[in-house]
Amino acid sequence: MSLALEDPVSALSGVGEKRQAALRDLGIFTIEDLLTYYPFRYEDLGARRPSETLDGEKVTFKGIVSTPAVVRRFGKRSQTVLGLLIDRENIRVTFFNQPWVAKNIEVGQEVAVYGTYNAAKAALSAIKLVPATTDALDPIYPASKGVKAKTIADLVEQAWGQLRGQMPNLVPQHLRDKYRLLDKNQQIEWAHFPKDSAEAKAGRRSAAFEEFFIFQMRLQLIKQADQSFGGQPLHYDKEAVATLIDRLPYDLTAAQKRVVGEILADQHDARHMNRLLQGDVGSGKTVVAAIAMYAAVTAGCQAALMAPTEILAQQHAKSLAKLFDQAGIDLRVELLTSGLKAAQRRQILTDLTNGDIDIVIGTHALVQDDVYFHHLGLAVIDEQHRFGVKQRSKLREGGMNPDILAMTATPIPRTLSITAYGEMEVSVIDELPAGRKQIITSQLSQRQFDQALALMKAELAKGAQAYVVTPLIEESETLDVRNVTEVYQSLQAALPDYTVGLLHGRLKKDDKDTLMQGFKDNQVQVLVATTVVEVGVDVPNASIMLILDADRFGLAQLHQLRGRVGRGDRQSYTVLVADPKTDYGKERLKALVDTTDGFELAQRDLELRGAGDILGTKQSGMPEFQVGDPVKDLTMLTIAQQEALSLVRESDWDNQVENQPLVTYLSKTMAQFRHFD
Asked: How far is the C-alpha of 286 from the C-alpha of 295, rounded, in Å?
């Protein structure tokens, strides 16, 4: 029976239900999935001499067996040792736990052995015997407990034997010519069965571009669909918006003015707005959002702001109400959270439906089924990466297809903004408000804790407040870290003239809120906490952040914690107390000491850690590329984005002959991709 690309992998010989399930776990459902499941590295099976090989290098040696293979047993383990003569060099070869090797070779036989070379001992730690005639690269596939790399290689060879030359070209001919990319069939051949490293490199290069290009095409089509979602132009009152800006207690920075202009232009446009507002901690994103929300209200619409926590939602509600009140603007701003009493909630829902509320601030409560807006014109989502695509869509569906403005205080390097937020327009506030003092950051060892305590006492004596952050709530037998309760008790003893509070995730909500309000009102001077303060209330009087065992935190998380101070007129300090054991830990803390620029730190973090977990928690919607590396291949990723954008802007791109395989493929896969979060 002939194979087709869309056939399930179970159509291959040797794939039963169990193996099919294991392949499915690797993302391999069809024959096409299998053929585009590329090796992540190659073992060079071309034979070399010991004198040409570096210590510790994986290599294939071809020679004559010079001594009999001897099997030595150590309980269930074994070593099979033999001598191998390569030209005039004799080396010792050891196979671990492969006693059957001794039965397959004899003195005088020519063999080829692949393994790791120890130059000092002139010895090879053997991995496997390979055919003596082999002179190519052996592809190594990402595997699992359920299916071995060798099994995948065999299945690929079986499938390609029947489908060689039948792969459709998804990358259009003009792009393959422009960037010297391989035909899809040659790409498959060279990626899976390269004769040398040059073929392997060319095959993977073409596969990486195709992967990036397909991904960017999907994002551009999502963006087009969003813009055709029935957006509405908001004819806001320009004079009223200008009046609000004039009455602010401070001047907007040039960056704030720029992004306000970009957002207002989007709101006035008939196309649907789907914009991400990036800004470092303390850069003034909230006031930009306030201006956009007020513009929506002057256009006869309502605005909503969704925050990730109730504490943040309460803070936004208070600060926005205060801002509009100080500007002499009469607006009704309400808070909608799950903590409301039933009668309060019913009244707010009724007033929201009737249009009596101008701006509503809330948490996930805003996307409940019983929430209806009179006419929602703008939805602002704070801390964008904590909400997924589906939640944004739910909020949109709850109104009149409102514009979406997402905000994040986590600086995102260009690499990730292209991938994670490729379907959104991006605005960046890249300067801090005038007069904001730079936070002075330093690192001390555990033995220097008294110096950190002395600095904190000096700041407290000036009337300031302090945060002390630890990684864990309870003692751990595996991690040498300070216990938050122990730290709290020791600071109570060390600071008898001040009130010390203890905040952690296991406190009841009411107790948390009471404690945070007490800290904000300066009834509590020192707040000992776990990372629940990472995104928390604004306390301008807090000027020192002490982070214990700082090497246990991610770089983005440390930067977020540092952003809790430096919000007022006081000179502020962050002290990192840690004895990092690894180079990565040392580099991370050094980067934080060297710069307070969140975007520079984010790029540094990306370089140190890779793209997988840059935001501290796994990015919702963050794609995983099988071949391309969005960090190392940023130029290729950017080009793929530009070419995808250029293609979809052509009015008849989907009718052009060279694009038909691409159109067919996208139409088959877009549905599952649309809900990728």
From this structure: 14
> Can you tell me whether residue 626 is helix, strand or coil?
coil
- C-alpha torsion sign, points 635, 640, 641, 645: positive
Spatial distance between the Cα atoms of 110 and 131, rounded to a whole number of angstroms: 10
User: What span, in angstroms and rounded, lies between the C-alpha atoms of 603 and 588?
Assistant: 12
Q: Which residues contact 284 (CB under 8 A, 6 or more apart)?
A: 252, 253, 256, 429, 432, 433
Q: pLDDT band for position 1 (50/70/90)?
A: low
Q: What is the DSSP string of 15-68?
A: --HHHHHHHHHTT--BHHHHHT---SEEEE-SB--GGG--TT-EEEEEEEEEEE
* 3-state SS class at 151: helix
pLDDT per position as a tens digit, 66-124: 999 999 999 889 999 999 999 888 999 999 999 999 998 999 999 999 899 999 999 99
Check: CB of residue 306 under 8 Å from CB of residue 381.
yes
> Cβ(353)–Cβ(642) under 8 Å?
no
Name the token pair of 73: 């047993």
Return the closest-CA partner of residue 502 out of 520, 528, 535.
528
pTM for this model (two decimals): 0.63
**What would the pLDDT profile of 60-70 be if each residue is shown by its tens digit?**
899 999 999 99
Query: For residues 352 and 184, what is the distance between their CA atoms, to the nearest angstrom?
Result: 55
CA-based Rg of the chain, rounded to a whole angstrom? 31
